[in-house]
Design the sequence.
């Protein structure tokens, strides 16, 4: 007969934990929060020290009834929500709803859902940590004060359905400021001159470096021509060779932020998708004979710390699978980031022996990809450094010097398992130079001068934006994914080629916020507020005082905005396309995935159309025009303009010429792996060529 009730957030977590605890425990799910501030009103009494008014969330009445019924049949109730502020708040709300004394030892926390971790946690239950609860409450009340005061103002002055928030407004401003930088950018011309040389039969490249003893930048075609005249018919002689041995250390195991960034780079996962799949891996997956087990540690963390036991297991595994030379004699420690709370370990596999290959039959495609990324990153973090031999050669041609450099992996170390991605998507490449000797004369194949222009700073991808927010101290691990989702849902930004661009609506809202609520957009102010929340969590500050300090100036700004903010009417841009359903003109609208066409007769006519772009290729099926389209998941593909009459589609971009071998359609394909690049291949036969 069960004598204890355990309450967690989700059914998946309940299933996994129930398996470890046995028949004396009933494990049920609260399905997340059971109480919250009301949606229909502010729910915060400013005059009474910001006292929050909590109500049962609509739809949670039956859940609470089931939990109350179960609680009457047991001696003990344990609250086992996630081990963070949000989880602590869920436990506190459950305690209030079920009449549990919050000072009773009812709270159970664990960083991983494994048999040993669960059993250890239930040996040491504690009371609810009100400092954690108050930190969560303060964030919730702050967001309510900002949102429920500024949002109605924006509804009245601009457009219904708008919202404002501390972190989301800063994120939109960062995107908008970057767009201003791009628009104001003036490109500058520069040139590169590359010599294609041979040492015996082996070819390599050397770049122009200096002239007359000083490093020289080439900024015009005239300068390039003068250089080419000076080196014409001159010999290329190796004058100096530098060889170095360089060690390269692995990246730290994943934090929430670095996991979101790397999953975006390597897997093309959105932040929200990364967190959803990570939650599944944490809560438990059925892996056959072992049943349902948690595969990774808790995924909301800002720490790179690892438990000594996990490091010892990694060392043993690495020695057995890769050899002693790949293992570390002492565990590698990673420096703690400034402002990191360090409450939990880094994200790692719960058992290193569960390799991705072993688990592949039990995981979905996305679960496998993310688990493999986490597993490989953790293993690599505990492996020996890679050793690279680097070579740099200076090659004189008259008074000009060309420089060639390359490297070779002498010992792969951690690179045998994993190499961290980069924000620009470049692959790790190791260019090798042929054997060279000083005073050696080289054979010139040709000289290749190229014109370039400096590029503006890139637009933010999800990975870059998360990284920037983290560096500025804006938000915390649990806030990044929902923030990025919100700013797109509100129509403040759109995605274009996987990069954020601000919409007209976003620019209007941020311009108004800058004028009337500058502190909300001030990154330093927002970062200080995050520090205040951390101080509340640590018991160093009282939460009403933090709110009072914020609200005094904020209330004054609200009064000014109410009186002086002008009403703005956003007019839709009219297209020259007529609605196929009612004949009225279509207008351009901005959605979360960019612009689309909508009928101007809305709401009487709700017709919408995608904005298509012709690529200059005829459909091979019906002779119509092939256009760019986007799938429901915002993935670019190519289809016939006569759809649905013609069902031709292609994920690869068709090329405007036929295969010389079989006369079928040619398409552009992107190569995977370290050689990367694009090539053209036939959609029917084995013909292939390099892209022009």
Sequence:
């Amino acid at each position: 007969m069960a004598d204890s009730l355990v309450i967690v957030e989700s059914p998946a977590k309940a299933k996994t934990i129930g398996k470890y605890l046995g028949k004396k425990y009933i494990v049920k799910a609260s399905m997340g929060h059971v109480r919250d501030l009301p949606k229909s009103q502010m729910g915060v009494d400013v005059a009474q020290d910001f006292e929050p008014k909590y109500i049962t969330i609509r739809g949670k009445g039956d859940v609470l009834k089931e939990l109350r019924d179960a609680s009457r049949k047991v001696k003990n109730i344990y609250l086992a929500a996630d081990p963070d502020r949000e989880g602590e708040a869920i436990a506190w709300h459950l305690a209030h709803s079920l009449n549990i004394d919050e000072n009773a030892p009812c709270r159970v926390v664990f960083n991983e859902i494994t048999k040993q971790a669960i059993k250890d946690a239930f040996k040491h239950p504690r009371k609810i940590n009100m400092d954690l609860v108050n930190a969560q409450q303060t964030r919730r009340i702050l967001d309510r004060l900002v949102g429920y005061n500024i949002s109605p103002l924006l509804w009245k002055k601009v457009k219904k359905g708008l919202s404002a928030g501390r972190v989301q407004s800063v994120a939109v401003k960062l995107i908008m400021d970057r767009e201003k930088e791009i628009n104001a950018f003036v490109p500058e011309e520069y040139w590169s001159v590359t010599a294609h040389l041979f040492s015996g039969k082996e070819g390599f490249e050397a770049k122009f470096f200096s002239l007359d003893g000083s490093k020289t930048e080439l900024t015009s075609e005239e300068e390039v021509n003068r250089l080419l005249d000076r080196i014409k018919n001159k010999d290329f002689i190796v004058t100096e060779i530098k060889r170095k041995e360089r060690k390269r250390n692995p990246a730290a195991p994943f934090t929430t932020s670095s996991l979101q960034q790397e999953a975006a780079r390597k897997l093309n996962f959105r932040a929200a998708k990364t967190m959803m799949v990570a939650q599944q891996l944490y809560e438990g997956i059925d892996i056959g004979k072992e049943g349902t087990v948690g595969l990774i540690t808790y995924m909301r963390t800002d720490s790179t710390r690892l438990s000594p036991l996990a490091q010892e297991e990694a060392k043993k595994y690495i020695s057995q699978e890769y050899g002693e030379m790949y293992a570390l004699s002492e565990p590698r420690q990673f420096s703690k980031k400034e402002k990191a709370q360090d409450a939990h370990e880094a994200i790692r596999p719960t058992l290193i022996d569960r390799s991705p290959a072993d688990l592949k039959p039990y995981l979905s495609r996305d679960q496998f990809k993310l688990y493999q990324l986490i597993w490989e990153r953790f293993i690599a973090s505990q492996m020996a450094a890679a050793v690279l031999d680097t070579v740099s050669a200076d090659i004189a041609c008259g008074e000009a010097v060309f420089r060639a450099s390359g490297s070779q992996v002498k010992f792969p170390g951690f690179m045998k398992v994993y190499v961290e991605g980069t924000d620009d998507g470049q692959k790790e490449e190791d260019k090798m130079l042929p054997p060279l000797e000083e005073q050696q004369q080289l054979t010139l194949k040709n000289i290749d001068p190229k014109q370039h222009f400096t590029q503006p700073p890139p637009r933010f991808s999800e990975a870059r934006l998360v990284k920037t927010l983290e560096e500025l101290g804006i938000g915390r691990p649990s806030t990044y994914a929902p923030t990025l989702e919100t700013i797109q849902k509100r129509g403040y930004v759109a995605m274009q080629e996987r990069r954020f661009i601000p919409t007209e609506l976003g620019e209007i809202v941020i311009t108004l916020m800058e004028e009337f609520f500058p502190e909300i957009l001030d990154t330093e102010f927002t970062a200080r507020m995050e520090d205040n929340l951390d101080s509340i969590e640590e018991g160093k500050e009282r939460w009403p005082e933090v709110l009072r300090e914020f609200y005094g100036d904020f209330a004054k700004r609200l009064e000014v905005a109410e009186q002086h903010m002008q009403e703005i009417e956003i007019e839709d841009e009219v297209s020259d396309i007529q609605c196929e359903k009612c004949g009225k003109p279509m207008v351009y609208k901005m959605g979360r995935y960019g612009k689309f066409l909508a009928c101007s007769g809305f709401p009487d006519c709700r017709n919408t159309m995608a904005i298509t772009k012709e690529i200059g290729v005829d459909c091979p099926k019906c002779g119509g025009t092939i256009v760019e389209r986007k799938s429901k998941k915002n993935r670019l593909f190519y289809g016939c303009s006569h759809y649905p009459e013609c069902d031709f589609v292609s994920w690869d971009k068709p090329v405007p010429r036929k295969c010389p071998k079989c006369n079928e359609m040619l398409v552009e394909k992107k190569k995977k792996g370290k050689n990367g690049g694009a090539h053209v291949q036939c959609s029917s036969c084995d013909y292939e060529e390099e892209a022009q």
